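In the previous chapter we treated chains in isolation. Here, by contrast, the input contains two separate entities that must be folded as one system, with a combined length of 228 residues.
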Amino acid sequence: DVKVTQSSRYLVKRTGEKVFLECVQDMDHENMFWYRQDPGLGLRLIYFSYDVKMKEKGDIPEGYSVSREKKERFSLILESASTNQTSMYLCASSFMGKETQYFGPGTRLLVL
Amino acid sequence: AQTVTQSQPEMSVQEAETVTLSCTYDTSESDYYLFWYKQPPSRQMILVIRQEAYKQQNATENRFSVNFQKAAKSFSLKISDSQLGDAAMYFCASRSYGGSQGNLIFGKGTKLSVKP
């Protein structure tokens, strides 16, 4: 079975802190994605990566950056956390050219 | 740009009954995929069913089936013999065929409750 793991299920941070959210997949997937999930808004794509060191902006990249140094790991970085970044963050991965994405359990981030 | 609309924020069904969740989408693409994902409370999002737009036959996975109306751009999910474990958020999503390395466009979700 495909396994996508995220470093934390729950995270509490202070405004202005630098926050790292980590995602690891064990299926050698080329594509990895970071989504933000908010009630009433569904899932919105923040960034995605289709190869090591490659990244593309999604629909809401402002205030975020990403890093992909190894194929299995995709990190989401909040350079200076703000209260409006309080949300659920979901990581996903897929094979290149394959349509099914596999999701991690999510990280619920609270920024105080 | 693709858009996906789920017009039912919440739905409720009696255990063992059938329920249909609605989804409409808008795309200028001729080839695309459509999906239903399920997110149980505090659990991982999983794929329920998918449909290739070029296939006329509606996809079916056990108790889950879709009614795909390409001309109407409608993609509803039917859950038969509903079970308590079906209670979850359901997201409809679309993806262009071959484009953007697999970006999915999601609807806002429908929260399904199952009454015993």
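The two ends of chain A are 37 Å apart (CA to CA). Chain A has no helices and eleven strands. Compare these points with the single-chain example from earlier in the chapter.
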